[in-house]
User: Which sequence fits this backbone?
């Protein structure tokens, strides 16, 4: 078993289960989640309705009329032994231009003050890493990213905002992410991208998918306005 | 068809949007899928054809051509012009007729299917309305007075006028006992908390919509706190947030969530969840995975068999 613990299978009624690889936000655990999701997608999907990778577990929804619980367990076991040997493929990072601070990032100064950093230092630390899209959830196209610099870990706002504009880049504890549509939200907002994460006018409405990698590039206000109109 | 009065909330729904959950797109679709499937079966439609989910009655529409239709759901007043018509039955109307669907005597949601199905453009493979995302259904929104809906005129084979057998009608109640499979996180709840959850009655609060239904009753205690690392959620999941009051998730629920989920309502009992009203109560009883599967497969067989009988006996 090359040292990796066997995941737990959790029941979610008679039409879904959750394959839980651990109880931590951890890159190696998330890679195992995505490896199993990729493996199941590459095989026969008869009876599998949805595969939803999250931080530390893979959620599988199935049709019990087409696929029995036991056959699904067998597919999962086969997938686990096949993916143990093979690491997940690394995709090219998606570049996200972000205008930090000002009206686009009303909490940039708050985050800087909490950590005793300058706003410029917060921007530099946030734009440095290549992030992993560990899951997409909350609203259509909202990516949850791992890889945030420890010096930027910041609790959510005490009271959530009623409306956070689409494109807002936020921090919540160890997570960073991008609001995909206007929605209520409690994350600390440090900037905004003019790029649409979810756009039904595009052939593929979703800019990123789970398993992708992503990096932020700081842009000035003029570029934000230019890109927003293009 | 022209909407004269939509009532408190009327939306176009089918059986939901599949295949985009890993991009954060909820299932949506009819809260009471049995009622929509049977309504479609009564008018010769495929089970997944789009119909109208009418919430809390108050619905009036003018039919602009001859059409067969059916209304399903809990017992309610349905009229064509002044004439009362039965639910769960194929009916016929002509151009100019006014269809009225009143408030259910017990329950919340009625389903209107028209032969051919409602013709709106599918978004990501479904005609369901997702209000929060503002897409699907009729222009991504609830129906409004004056909206004109097109009916798809697919020249299908003739189908029988019929009445759904009572065995297909869910046992609607203002005090349903919902069957659940424990998990995925029942081990996060204390033994006393679990006993309360399964023994007590929970009152339905006014916070009750397509995303979820907040319940109120004996506080369910957690062993390690209410928060988990966010994982997958689905309609029927029973979340227990920090206040110890359970919440039942509905068709528009978020795809992922960070609260402990003590149990999941079996799919055959989701129609009962759809008809819960504020002021009612719910209680829960456990079934094993094996029992849940048997119940689901039997129900699925009944529904498929009803549909098949409608499509080849004219």
Assistant:
């Amino acid at each position: 078993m090359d040292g990796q613990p066997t995941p737990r299978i959790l029941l979610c009624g008679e039409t879904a289960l959750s394959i839980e690889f651990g109880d931590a936000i951890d890159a190696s655990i998330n890679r195992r989640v995505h490896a199993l999701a990729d493996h199941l997608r590459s095989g026969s999907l008869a009876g599998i309705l949805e595969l939803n990778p999250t931080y530390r577990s893979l959620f599988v929804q199935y049709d019990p009329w087409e696929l029995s619980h036991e056959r699904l367990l067998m597919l999962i076991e086969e997938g686990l032994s096949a993916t143990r040997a093979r690491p997940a493929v690394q995709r090219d990072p998606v570049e996200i231009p972000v205008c930090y601070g000002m009206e686009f990032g009303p909490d940039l100064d708050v985050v800087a003050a909490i950590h005793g950093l300058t706003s410029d230092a917060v921007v530099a630390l946030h734009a440095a890493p290549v992030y992993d899209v560990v899951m997409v959830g909350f609203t259509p196209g909202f990516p949850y990213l791992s890889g945030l610099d420890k010096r930027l870990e910041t609790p959510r706002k005490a009271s959530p905002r009623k409306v956070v504009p689409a494109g807002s880049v936020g921090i919540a504890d160890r997570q960073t992410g991008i609001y995909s549509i206007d929605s209520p939200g409690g994350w600390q907002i440090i900037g905004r991208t003019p790029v649409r994460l979810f756009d039904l006018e595009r052939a593929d409405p979703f800019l990123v998918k789970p398993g992708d990698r992503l990096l932020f590039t700081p842009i000035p206000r003029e570029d934000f306005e230019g890109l927003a109109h293009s | 068809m022209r909407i004269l009065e939509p009532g408190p909330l009327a939306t176009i729904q089918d059986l939901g949007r599949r295949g985009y959950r890993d991009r954060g797109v909820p299932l949506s679709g009819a809260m009471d899928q049995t009622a929509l499937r049977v309504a479609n079966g009564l008018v010769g439609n495929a089970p997944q054809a789009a119909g109208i989910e009418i919430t809390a009655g108050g619905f009036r529409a003018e039919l602009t051509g001859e059409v067969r239709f059916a209304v399903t759901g809990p017992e309610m007043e349905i009229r064509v012009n002044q004439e009362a018509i039965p639910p769960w039955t194929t009916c016929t109307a002509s151009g100019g007729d006014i269809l009225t669907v009143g408030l259910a005597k017990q329950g919340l949601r009625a389903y209107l299917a028209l032969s051919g199905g409602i013709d709106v453009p599918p978004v990501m493979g479904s005609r369901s309305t997702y209000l929060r995302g503002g897409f699907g259904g009729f222009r991504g929104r609830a129906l409004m007075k004056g909206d004109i809906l097109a009916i798809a005129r697919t020249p299908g084979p003739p189908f029988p006028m019929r009445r759904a057998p009572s065995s297909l009608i869910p046992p609607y109640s203002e005090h349903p006992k919902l069957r659940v499979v424990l998990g995925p996180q029942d081990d996060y709840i204390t033994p006393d908390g679990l006993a309360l959850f399964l023994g007590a009655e929970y009152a339905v609060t006014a916070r009750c919509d397509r995303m979820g239904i907040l319940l109120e009753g004996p506080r369910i205690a957690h062993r390690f706190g209410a928060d988990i690392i966010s994982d997958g959620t689905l309609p029927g999941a029973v979340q227990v947030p920090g206040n110890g009051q359970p919440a039942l998730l509905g068709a528009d629920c978020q795809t992922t969530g960070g609260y402990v989920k003590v149990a999941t309502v079996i799919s055959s009992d989701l129609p009962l969840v759809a008809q819960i009203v504020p002021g009612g109560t719910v209680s829960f009883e456990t079934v094993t995975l094996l029992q849940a599967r048997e119940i689901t497969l039997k129900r699925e067989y009944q529904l498929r068999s009803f549909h098949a009988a409608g499509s080849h006996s004219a």
Observations:
- Chain A has a mean pLDDT of 92.
- Helices of chain A lie at 27-42, 69-84, 108-115, 119-127, 221-229.
- Chain A touches chain B through 46 residues (CB under 8 Å).
